[in-house]
Amino acid sequence: MPLTALDVANRLQSTVLGEPNRPITGAAILEDAAPDQIAYIKDAKKIAKGLESAAGTLLIPPAAVEKVTESNCDKSLIVVDDPQEAFLQLVAHFHPEPTPVSIGISEHAFVAPTAKIGEETDIHPTAVIEDGVEIGARCVIHPGAVIGRGSRIGNDCVLYPHVVLYPGMQLADRVVIHACSVIGADGFGYRQIKGEHVKIPHYGTVIIEDDVEIGACTTIDRSFLGATRIGRGSKIDNQVMIGHNCNIGRHNILVSHVGFAGSVSTGDYVICAGQVGVADHVHIGDGAVLGAKCGVHKDLPGGVTYLGTPATPESETIRQVMALRKLPELRTKVKELETQIQQLQEQLRQQLNDDRSQCSAA
Amino acid sequence: MPLTALDVANRLQSTVLGEPNRPITGAAILEDAAPDQIAYIKDAKKIAKGLESAAGTLLIPPAAVEKVTESNCDKSLIVVDDPQEAFLQLVAHFHPEPTPVSIGISEHAFVAPTAKIGEETDIHPTAVIEDGVEIGARCVIHPGAVIGRGSRIGNDCVLYPHVVLYPGMQLADRVVIHACSVIGADGFGYRQIKGEHVKIPHYGTVIIEDDVEIGACTTIDRSFLGATRIGRGSKIDNQVMIGHNCNIGRHNILVSHVGFAGSVSTGDYVICAGQVGVADHVHIGDGAVLGAKCGVHKDLPGGVTYLGTPATPESETIRQVMALRKLPELRTKVKELETQIQQLQEQLRQQLNDDRSQCSAA
Amino acid sequence: MPLTALDVANRLQSTVLGEPNRPITGAAILEDAAPDQIAYIKDAKKIAKGLESAAGTLLIPPAAVEKVTESNCDKSLIVVDDPQEAFLQLVAHFHPEPTPVSIGISEHAFVAPTAKIGEETDIHPTAVIEDGVEIGARCVIHPGAVIGRGSRIGNDCVLYPHVVLYPGMQLADRVVIHACSVIGADGFGYRQIKGEHVKIPHYGTVIIEDDVEIGACTTIDRSFLGATRIGRGSKIDNQVMIGHNCNIGRHNILVSHVGFAGSVSTGDYVICAGQVGVADHVHIGDGAVLGAKCGVHKDLPGGVTYLGTPATPESETIRQVMALRKLPELRTKVKELETQIQQLQEQLRQQLNDDRSQCSAA
After folding, report:
1. pTM as predicted
2. Which of A259, B114, B263, C286 has the most crowded Cβ, counting Cβ within 10 A?
3. Per-window interface: A 251-290 vs B, CB < 8 A
4. Does residue A28 belong to the interface with chain B, where contact is any CB pair within 8 Å?
């Protein structure tokens, strides 16, 4: 359903600078936007880029207005305090979700008679719900998901296809787990006895708190005793590995291919960029940010951005990288200095001899 | 069915140097080959290794002939322009594939009535094909594969067990996806609002062009709007992560554990070795080669081989690594120079005093 | 079923130091233990930590006894030679496993008529067993596992949900594979012909020897010819990638996100910590230990601990890292030396002039 720039401004309780009747048939990011689409800039600094784009209509923040003149702008502009927020509303308008069709419990799902399933919960064909499982209301259990015996799942959770919960897992409310992720496999622990690696049985569970989202092909191992825990509101990307007995704080962001060994703990609002690795028993403080590929082998205070392996505060790592780049020329320089020193030594020796000869002469 | 060296030479329109009647019962790589097997060397430089091997018969390139004499060779040799190509033909001869059995649409698959399935396409038990899906001809959909509603798949595609396509995915012709890979999970995007990470809905799709092969347990996320795209003929290994809105060029090679953050784009013929990581919005030019474990945080021109983190042209990285190895001894050297300078300073001071005393004496 | 300290001591053929009637209702690791629980210290050096803990009863090694006095200890102590072993026994006592319920071959599993299934083997709903498969006795094949045609599995194996064996795989006895792992996908090999990457067909298999355990979402590719092999007793964590034609020795430990390219071979008792990457055709010797994130591009002798990329013996890497940290200050130092040398040169020149003037004067 197409709109005009004025329609959009009205919806956002704002007004249009420029042509109010410009048609808007869709929303797109700046790089892709066409003249009949609306785009946005998040920051006034991006206004030049916005004005150069092909978008017909732009959402801009108040600070960008002063940078616009009639001569540099042929677009319709709508000024809002949070252009990204407004843009996401418009995107939703142009991409109406299909009304979800309730399927209830499929006759082709395998639900143990002792399982308890909440109201309005969908269980798709080929899903397997084992003995004693409890699932809350309004959940969607996609095809092939396997919920091990005795697991408990709260309300409004979504398990995408082939998610596996080993027995005894605990998910709170509004937990989303993407396809082929595995929650609760045994921790990786062995004792070496007479040359054999003998398995340490893992009796614990995984507790996933409210509003956690977990990507595809991610693995979170059960603890030895007690629980591996993912704190409320944390978001975990695809192909992340969380070892046994980890205790992840609230509102963490863990990007793809991050690996945590056993018993790692994090504070709240920790961010790990892609491919970060953390050794066992390490604690990472509140609000720490670990740059991509960081390797962490000891506790890190919070509130600091780290880079590199071993993880080091950002500015220090950058100094090291810069110094390393100039290391070959430093080596050359040191060789030059060495030569100069030898020359000085030689000169000095010469001069001493000269002095002596002079003295003798004298 | 065993052959002689002469049989093989005839098939390859070549002739035999040495014993023509040597029996060949199989093909093997050089390291594993036995006297009744045929092996190959790709390059004339490997002729010594070939002659030392236990293989009874060798495929060699023309340039290798001059390095062979009666005294150093007890094998049957067959000279061909492309020994690897010839070898692969023979391997195929000795490993006849079982005739594929057409199973059609299994009665134990779950195919929505609104789905359209092409001719000679097999759909195995426990596969799930949702509403509005279209699948072309001669495809094989293995057990447990889940094709989300409205997805479109071309001709001659193979989806191995448990491959998951989220709704709305688009696969062209001859696309192969190995087991447990997930195409189209939500991009990893959140906005922080009042201390919560609020999900940015992802409305886009994934477009996989002709002749793309994707390994096992690989994940390719859907875009925010528009499409994440994998260009024609690109080959992606196991456990690779491609973030939302990536635009991968044609004929790329992405090795295992490579991770691309959101909106990465690559030119054609880009190669990423294992465990490479690329930050969001980076562009990598045509024909760039990223060595294993490269970390990329900014655009890289094509046609260059890069190593290290941050990714740096190969020769530069090697210089840095070499210099780093000698850094401890450089530190020692600088300390020595420091001492020598102090000695020089001391000597010079001494001499100056001596001069002065001499002067006074004089 | 609760015990007293004396009960436990009797079971372990030991005696109690301190209160023998202290009730023990469970076992916990030291950090988590409560007064009515038993914990352990592995090493006498940890005795102070043990005595400070909240645990009511402690298992300690003989060497720790002399460090305990009545005044520093309010706990019940039980002295045993191997406290960890004793602790694991007690944990098992307090966590009785539910008696496994034999389900036999589920009527909702898809078992080809030509497959042979051993005694007391369970095959769960939605598992798929293809033509000609042979499975030994007392195995458990969980929901969604897919066993490709002609594969052979020994006795007492466990395949967790959605494990995929491609056709022709070979598992020995007591092999455990966790959920969503994929064994036998095609090796990642292509030949570039006229600008296209043409697939090299892979005819080989994967052989997994006795007592191997493989984590979740791990991939092990089939070989070109012959077999990719995992040696007896090796333990592989989640999300590990083993390329085609690898030959892994016995009793290896490969931690999460380790990636081996094609044709890598390892000796026995090799340990790779998390996120290690090894290039193709590399051999790693017996007992080598690769620290987390090591990058290996050439053969490494056994019996050595390596760190870094390129992998370097531990002490050497640590020296390099230390030197790198001080590199910025080394640069500063070299600049200082340069200045000092210039001053020396200037002084010397000056002095020479002075001498000459003196000479002239004389």
Report:
1. 0.95
2. A259
3. 251, 253, 255-257, 274-275
4. yes
